[in-house]
Amino acid sequence: MNGHTAHVEESGSGPPVVLVHGLGGTGADIWKHQIPGLAAEFRVVSYDLRGSGESEVSPGPYSIGLLCDDLRALVDALNLGRVAFVAHSMGGSIALTYAARYSGDVSALVGIGAPAELPDQAREGLETRARTVEAEGMAAVAETVATNGVSPTFREGDPQGFSEFIAMLEANDPLGYAAQCRALVGLGIVNQLAEIRAPALLISGDRDGVSPPLVTEANAGRIRGGEFTIVEDCGHLLTWEKPAELAEAAWPFLREHA
Fold it and tell me: Do residues 115 and 89 make contact, with C-beta atoms less than 8 angstroms apart?
């Protein structure tokens, strides 16, 4: 797929919906709470990004544009045609890029904690994180990244889920993870959002530090007809922290447009 081997899983039947995970995740893990319900209504495709999970860790550098090209190759290889996306974090950045490039080929887009650009401090932090995992491995950053990525309510109320999040991060290949970090360092698609014509819903947890609510709402406003929803008492890992609230907010929108 676009020059590398990708791990892809499918379930269900109906209109196609592609799930795109973000930095540090895998298709099966990030969407474990969503896939069964969506598969009852849609043909659900999840995959591991280049450098993640069971997909090939091809040599860097990566970019959001390259990862978008990978997604296009996946859509073409599976003959999905006009497709809907549900995308988290960096996966949302990839899906937004896709929707700007190929707007007529997207039936709907749900972006969850999906940044369009990052402030300088975050870019510097990602570069530092990339260097750290290259030198010391994923264990050097996993717990800190997990702690910063979820709300205190989730950490304290679901310690098993929090431990699973740390374990998922630790399982990443350091080279693939570092290459993805650097792809985010180069992220800058704010000016492309106006090119999106597909129905788009952007969702943010009120405690999301990666794509804060005010920023996410502003990005939704840059998309013609874009919608915005906030989920209370939730950090960046909305798919695990608040799966019921995510379904309530997003699935009616997906049914209407996909």
Answer: yes
